[in-house]
Specification:
- The protein is of the alpha/beta class.
- Helices cover 42% and strands 14% of the residues.
- It has a nine-stranded mixed β-sheet, sandwiched between helices. A two-stranded antiparallel sheet has the order 6-11.
- Strand 3, helix 3 and strand 4 form a beta-alpha-beta unit.
């Protein structure tokens, strides 16, 4: 069920992109204000007309969410989506998920509910963005260029990722044989070079003691320092649009084509309760679907309170929500960034 508070929509009848945002009340600051503000701020008039925005209030009682009563919310959204109380079975099912705090099942329900509404808009692209993100100044033209590049690289791809966290891009244990082989290759190359130099040019300088020190002290120390520096420091990601088949997290910002969005709805309902990004990754691995990511991310995760519950009792110094962060986002040149003003109440 939607609430239309405007006589004329802000978007064209045939929008290029539909943005779907599901939002729930959070303790303290409502991040949706900054999320919506950063997405809209700085858009050219023509760009805004090509974007259709749908915001789902994720409560059976929408008045629980503070922004639902704020004038800007309905004025700037093309559609405000709420649960339909006339559909008693569905409405009671959602209420039950709320009461039991069944975040996994409700996350899938909200995602598909919102995704279906975006599909109805007829937009060529559907961007599903979480309500705890911040967009870079020129996110829209960057995203549209990235979508063109993705289309040119593959005809059957699942999504374009607008956000990922680098937390899982370290020296992953799955590749330890490659790391070991590379280390052995470096060790062997250094030893072979020293033996060759001693034979052809420096027989008196390169003694057995020198070879032992370089091979068994200096070389292992350099290899150790290389790994201690971290994968992203030694092998940084190349900016652009690249495949990201592994370790992509999380679902803060994913863009689907219109046709793919319909397949995503079917797949999420088929798989049932779970985390959206994990279900999509499993599906992509099974059917070998290509996944692309914009590097650096054009979205940043913000806030320390998750909509799926908090882990304040954890011994970790940072909560799970606080560790979901993209460092590459912070490298965008300051002059290319807008000053984000959260929408006032």
């Amino acid at each position: 069920m939607s609430i239309d508070s405007k006589n004329v929509t802000l978007a064209l009848q045939d929008p290029t992109m539909c943005i779907g945002i599901a939002t729930v009340e959070r303790a303290g600051e409502q991040y949706i204000r900054s999320t919506f503000g950063s997405l809209m701020d700085g858009l050219e008039e023509a760009e805004r007309k090509h974007i259709y925005t749908i915001v789902l209030i994720g409560h059976t009682d929408p008045h629980r969410h503070p922004v639902f009563r704020e004038p800007w919310f309905k004025a700037l959204s093309d559609m405000v989506l709420i649960y339909d109380p006339t559909n008693r079975e569905q409405f009671e099912n959602v209420r039950k998920m709320e009461q039991e705090k069944d975040y996994r099942q409700k996350a899938i329900f909200d995602y598909t509910y919102l995704l279906e509404e975006c599909i109805k808009s007829g937009a060529a692209w559907v961007a599903m963005i979480e309500d705890d993100t911040l967009a870079v100044a020129d996110w829209y033209p960057r995203t549209m260029r990235a979508l063109d590049l993705a289309d040119s690289k593959s005809t059957d791809w699942l999504y374009l990722r607008l956000f990922f966290t680098e937390e899982f891009f370290g020296w992953n244990r799955e590749f330890w044989p490659m790391y070991l082989l590379s280390s052995v290759a470096v060790f062997a190359s250094v030893a072979a070079l020293l033996l060759l130099l001693r034979k052809v040019r420096y027989p008196m300088v390169i003694s057995n003691a020198v070879i032992f020190t370089v091979c068994f002290v200096c070389t292992p120390a350099c290899i150790l320092l290389y790994f201690m520096a971290g994968r992203l420091s030694m092998r940084p990601m190349i900016p652009g649009v690249h495949e990201m088949p592994n370790f992509g997290c999380c679902a803060q910002g994913l863009v689907f084509s219109l046709d793919t969005a319909a397949r995503v709805v079917d797949k999420l309902r088929e798989k049932g309760p779970g985390f959206v990004d994990m279900i999509l990754e499993e599906w992509a691995n099974e059917e070998k679907l290509t996944r692309f990511a914009v590097i650096p991310s054009v979205l940043q995760h913000i806030g320390s309170h998750s909509s799926k519950g908090n882990d304040n009792g954890s011994p970790e110094p940072l909560s799970v929500a606080e560790r979901i962060f993209n460092f590459g986002f912070e490298l965008y040149k300051q002059q290319r960034q807008r000053v984000v003003h959260p929408i006032e109440r």
